[in-house]
Write a structure and sequence with these properties.
Layout lengths: L1 E3 L5 H10 L2 E3 L8 H6 L6 E4 L7 H6 L6 E4 L9 H6 L3 E3 L6 H17 L1 H9 L20 E5 L3 H12 L3 E5 L6 H4 L3 E3 L2 H4 L5 E4 L13 H6 L4 E5 L8 H10 L2 E6 L18 E3 L8 H19 L3
Parallel strand pairs: 1-2, 1-3, 3-4, 4-5, 6-7, 6-9, 7-8, 9-10, 10-11, 11-12
Helix pairs in contact: 1-12, 5-7
This protein binds (2R)-2,3-dihydroxypropanoic acid (DGY).
């Protein structure tokens, strides 16, 4: 029996139903742990997503029949991996298939923030556009500018490729330097202290985990060039919201483009009033093609976990 917490695409659901008896919870909004636990009888696999917080308490309350939890995401920080391992529950996720879609989102945010697209659209929809003028709503070119990628993994590398096509110079900050074939001429910084002052744009493409939490704090924001633009499609907790909002208000950070937030979907209310923040509701991997591929990969993971060794 496969328990599915959220609505999934018809093609993926059809495959799930061909391979398993399916119990679909179709949760909308906050994760309902009581509903999940009440539906777990006879379940051997669970398909969830990043909104579903599987704490140690919830994992320990699952019946012994549960062998695998698959998540419709590459990120696994919503799952208590240690508790799952202690229970012998396998974890499956969906790395690789969402790199391009997420890098596209980083690029979209970068361009929207640089060209003030959100402000322009809001102004036009409010009926306030008075016509084109030489100084009206000027943004900044991206060509010839430096883009710094914090977290040069698979998604960061696709973004670097896109940005090279826009004639940007790529810098990156990772724990380890990439081999030249993957680096493709990007400039490696071992230390944030040399990385941040070199940037016109900072794109966060790192995973959420204890070592990245709070990385972009007030001290690091202060090391950015005045007028730099910050993009985040990695994870919300990497950014200190109070510090970023203060930097956006002062103009030290010219603009931000955000797809991920602390405490989604109840984001810091300070962002709402900021004209220089482009705010997207965690849509990085939200294309039909990518979500279909993620669904198939999650089902592959479930199949592998339930197959005899
Ligand atoms: C992921 O895969 O972790 C994304 O953030 C969810 O689409």
């Amino acid at each position: 029996m496969l328990l599915i917490t959220r609505e999934i695409l018809p093609e993926v659901l059809a495959r799930a139903q061909a391979e398993h008896e399916v119990r679909a919870l179709n949760m909308v909004g906050p994760f309902d742990a009581a509903k999940l636990l009440a539906a777990c009888d006879g379940v051997d696999a669970i398909l969830c997503n990043t909104a579903d917080k599987f704490t140690a308490g919830i994992i320990n309350a699952l019946p012994p029949s549960v062998k695998v939890i698959a998540t419709y995401s590459v990120g696994t920080e919503h799952l208590d991996l240690a508790a799952a391992a202690a229970r012998g529950i396998k974890i499956a996720n969906t790395p690789g298939v969402l790199d391009r879609a997420t890098a596209e989102m980083s690029l979209l945010l970068l361009l929207m923030a640089a060209r003030r697209a959100g402000e322009g659209e809001r102004l036009l929809r409010a009926g306030k556009w008075r016509g084109i003028a030489p100084t009206f709503l000027l943004g900044h070119d991206v060509a010839g500018k430096t883009l710094g990628i914090y977290g040069m993994g698979r998604i960061g590398q696709v973004l670097a490729r896109f940005a090279r096509g826009l004639d940007m110079t790529i810098h990156y900050h990772n724990r380890t330097r990439l081999p030249p074939g993957l680096e493709q001429g990007a400039i490696y910084h071992e230390r944030a202290e040399t990385f941040l002052p070199a940037l016109d744009f900072l794109s966060i493409n790192a995973p959420g985990n204890p070592s990245t939490t709070g990385w972009l704090n007030a001290a690091r924001l202060a090391q950015l060039k005045p007028g730099a633009i910050v993009i985040n499609t990695g994870r919300g907790p990497i950014v200190d919201d109070e510090a970023l909002i203060a930097a956006l208000k002062s103009g030290h950070v010219r603009a931000a483009g955000l797809d991920v937030y602390n405490n989604e979907p109840d984001i810091h209310p300070g962002y709402y009033a900021l004209e220089n923040a482009v705010l997207i509701p965690h849509l990085g991997s939200a294309t039909i093609e990518t979500r279909t591929a993620m669904g198939h990969l999650a089902l592959d993971g479930i199949k592998a976990a339930l197959s005899p060794p």
